[in-house]
Amino acid sequence: MGEDRRMMVEKESAALDVEVSRNEEFDDDGRPRRTGTVWTASAHIVTAVIGSGVLSLAWSMSQLGWIAGPVTLFLFSIITFFTSSLLTNCYRAPHPVTGKRNYTYMEAVRSNLGATQVWLCGICQYVNLIGTAIGYTITASISAAAISKASCFHKKGHEADCSVADTFYMVGFGVIQIFLSQLPNFHELWWLSILAAVMSLTYSFIAIGLSMAKIISGNTGKTSITGVEVGVDVDSAQKVWKACQALGDIAFAYSYSMLLIEIQDTLKSPPAENKVMKKASFIGVSTTTTFYFLCGCLGYAAFGNKAPGNILTGFGFYEPFWLIDLANICVIIHLVGAFQVFCQPIFSVVETLITRRHPNIKFLTNEKTLIIGKSFKYKINLFRLIWRTCFVIVVTFLAILMPFFNDILAFLGAVGFWPLTVYFPIEMYIAQSNIKKFSKKWNLLQSLSILCLLISLSAAVGSIEGVVDSLKHYTPFETKS
C-alpha cells in the first residue's frame, strides 16, 4: 500500500509539473504566452508613429506659420494620447482588466459597440493600413533614390541633372517585404521594431542637426507668423488648400491608434495590459512629439516658406553628402520595419478568417520549419507564402502608380484620424463607462469628436485637390525623384 501510495503521489506530482509547464507556456486564452513589455510596446509605437510623417513636418509648418503650426502639433499630440488612453481600456471587455481579450481593433468595436459598426471600422482601419503600406513604399524608394542623387550632386555639382527613376527602388523594397512578411506572428517582430525605432530616432537627430547647422550659418529662408504668404509664395486658393493638406500631414504623423489593440495584445500580464499600454502610449507620444517639434520648427526656421516636402530628400541639404546618405539609409531600414508593423494586422485578420472557415484544409495550416544556423527558425506556410507575396506585389504596384508623397500622406491622415483615433475610442469609452447621453461629459466628448471630424474633412479636401493637381504633370511608371 505504501509503494502504491508513493507511485500515485509521484504521478500526481508529474501531472502537476506538466500543468505548471503548460501554464508557463500559454496565457489564460490558450494562446502562446505573450512576452511584450512597456519598452517593446513603446518601440512598436515609435516605429509606427515616427515614420515618413516626420519628414513632411517642416513643410507643414511652412504652410501654417509660427502660431498655428506648433499649436496644431501640440493639440494633435494631446488628442492622440487622450483617445489612446480610452482605447487601451477596450482591449478587454466588458471590464478593462478582467474581461475577455479582444485581439484586434475590430473585435474591440464588436465587443463594445456591437456588430453594426464593425464594417465601418474594418473599412476605415484596413484601407488606412493598406494606404500606409503604400505610403511607406513610396517614401522608402524616394530615400533610396536620394542616396544616389546625393552622391551625384557631390561629384557633379548642385546644378547637375541627377534625377533617377523611383520604380526600381520600389520593386527592391517590395522584394525585401516579401521575405519579412513570412514571419507568422506580430510578437516575433519586437526586434525589428526596436531596430526600426532606433533608425527613426537616428534620422530625426540628423535632420535636426542639419537644420541647426543651417540656422547657425545664417543662410536661412524667410519665415512668418502665418506661413507662406499670399501673393508672394502662393495665391489665396493655394494657401487654403495647402493649409488643409498640412493638417492631413500632421494627422498622419500621429496615426497609430489603428494598431494600438494589436500592439497591446503582445503584452504579458500581470500587470494589467491597459495600465502598461497607457505608459507605453505616454512614452511613445511624448518621444515622438518632442522630435516633431524639433524637426518641424527647426526645419521651418532653416528653410522658411520654401521648406521642401521631404526634409531629407528635397535637397535643401547637399553637404555633408555622406551624412544625408546615412539619414536616408536609416529611413529605409525604419520603413522596412514599419511596413511590417502596419501589415501584420491585415495578414492576421485574413488568415484567421480563412482558417476558421476551412480548418481541415492542410494547405492553410501546415507549417514547414526551415532551420537557418543553430538557433534561428524560419517557418514557411504555403498559403501564407502565396497570399502575402501577392499582397506585397499589389501594394508595390499601387505605389508605383501613385508616387505623390505629401498628397498621399495628407489623404491617409485625413481618412484615418477621425474614425480610428477619435470616433471609435470615444464611442467605445462611452458605451463601456455607461455615460449618460447629453450629460456634461458626453457633450464634451462629442464636441471633441465633431471638431476632429471637421479637421479630417478639411484635410481630405486639401489632399484630394493636391492629388488632382499632381496628376496634371504625371506620367505613369516614369516618375523620377
Provide an overview of this structure.
The protein is globular and about 60 Å long. With 481 residues, it is an all-alpha fold. The protein has helices at 2-25, 38-49, 57-88, 105-113, 118-156, 167-180, 190-217, 236-253, 257-264, 273-303, 321-357, 362-365, 382-401, 405-433, 440-471; strands spanning 92-93, 100-101, 368-372, 376-380. The strands form two sheets. A two-stranded antiparallel ribbon has the order 1-2. A two-stranded antiparallel ribbon has the order 3-4. The protein has one domain: Amino acid/polyamine transporter I (Up-down Bundle). Mean pLDDT is 80; it is low at 13-22. The protein is built from 15 helices and four strands. A hairpin with a 3-residue loop joins strand 3 and strand 4 (376-380).
Question: Top keywords for this entry?
Answer:
481 residues, mainly alpha, Amino acid/polyamine transporter I, two-stranded antiparallel sheet, two-stranded antiparallel ribbon, 3% strand, globular
SSE blueprint:
Blueprint: H1 2-25, H2 38-49, H3 57-88, E1 92-93, E2 100-101, H4 105-113, H5 118-156, H6 167-180, H7 190-217, H8 236-253, H9 257-264, H10 273-303, H11 321-357, H12 362-365, E3 368-372, E4 376-380, H13 382-401, H14 405-433, H15 440-471
Antiparallel strand pairs: 1-2, 3-4
Helix pairs in contact: 2-7, 2-9, 2-10, 3-8, 3-9, 3-10, 3-14, 4-5, 4-14, 5-6, 5-11, 5-13, 5-14, 6-13, 7-10, 7-11, 8-14, 8-15, 14-15
Short summary:
By secondary structure, the protein is an all-alpha fold. It has 15 helices and four strands.
